[in-house]
Amino acid sequence: MTKISLLGCGWLGLPLAKKLIEKGFTVNGSTTSENKLSILENAGINPFLVILSEVEGALESESVSETINSFLDKSDILIIDIPPKLRGNQNFSTSLEMTFVRKIENLIPFIENSTVKKVLFVSSTSVYGNENGLISEKTNPNPDTESGRQLLLAEALLQNNPNFETTIVRFGGLIGEDRQPVKFLAGKENLENADAPVNLIHLNDCIGVIQEIINQSKWNEVFNAVAPFHPTRETYYRQKAIDLNLALPQFSFEKSNIKKTISSEKVETILNYKFKLEDY
User: Fold this and answer.
1) What is the pLDDT of residues 61-75, one digit of tens each?
2) Separation between Cα atoms, residue 269 and residue 161, nearest integer Å
3) Contacts with 92 (C-beta within 8 Å, 6 or more apart), sequence order
4) Which residues pair with 118 in a beta bridge?
5) Which pLDDT value is given to residue 259?
6) pLDDT (tens digit, 9 = 90+) per residue, 131-181?
7) Which DSSP state fits 176?
8) Which end of the chain is more exposed for a tag (fewer CB within 10 A), N or C?
9) 8 A C-beta contact, residue 151 and residue 143
């Protein structure tokens, strides 16, 4: 039976862990909150309190090292699903510290010394920045936010390490039953990029794509994961507001210059994955 270590049992990680257990995997799951340990345990997940630090040497204390080593012990696969938690609109020209990248740097020696030989890193299409046109995995990333920049650097750290194979999955905007961006847009005025296409992925498809990568052993790959469903922002969010009985968002066409469409053709062809479009 394959054991998987899942770093970050949050909005995506927790339901993903539950689904992997249903499929017969043993799952070690991490959280940064002691209060959540019992939630993981009750879900059948082996719970670990893992708090990565960006400070050099901070993970070398005996207790911290023992926890991380135990978390990775006898696992074949490590899934890294921890967000940078940086201000998404922060331009990296203002020189923020590379906190997220340093966390990954500090984690890598533990991976190297473990049984883990496969790593799946959850990234974001934000690494492409505000490029226009059709974006595929062959498009050169050009992040224009600090979080996008640090995700891209973290991707490279993992991909370039010869001690394990890494697959990167870049998700678009995340949506789910409790996560719908229109709730934050409802009633607002002069919203930009009215005719820009949406690039979204539902929680169920996030889980489905990750499962297929593991099931088909697709390692040393990069996948964009965005539903092949790209109405304009105005069309999509106005209709969602109607569906949820919310105040309609009002869009301005004066600032509509981003026409980025993320292609998931590789996911659909290489993984033969079918998106659950009824969820959107």
Assistant:
1) 667 889 999 999 999
2) 27
3) 143, 144, 145, 146, 149
4) 77, 165
5) 86
6) 889 999 999 999 999 999 999 999 999 999 999 999 999 999 999 978 999
7) B
8) N
9) yes
By C-alpha distance, which of 90, 95, 104 is closest to 147?
Answer: 90
pTM of the model: 0.93
Per-residue pLDDT, 94: 36
Given a cut of 70, the residues of the chain with pLDDT beneath it are 1, 56-62, 86-97, 255-256
Closest CA to 279 of 210, 228, 233, 242: 228
How far apart, in whole angstroms, are the C-alpha atoms of residue 271 and residue 182? 30
Rounded CA-CA distance 280/277 in Å is 6
CA 176 vs. chain centroid, Å, equals 14
Integer Cα distance of 228 and 275 in angstroms: 8
Q: What is residue 154's three-state secondary structure?
A: helix
Phi, psi of 232 (to 5 degrees): -70, 160
**Residue that has been written with the tokens 């678009």 in this structure:** 172
DSSP-derived secondary structure letter, 251: B
Residue 193's region, left for phi above 0, alpha for psi from -120 to 50, else beta, is left
Number of neighbouring beta carbons within 10 Å of residue 153? 16
Phi/psi for 112 (5° steps) reads -60, -35
Say if residues 47 and 54 touch (Cβ distance below 8 Å). no
Task: Give the DSSP H or E segment for 200.
Answer: strand 200-202
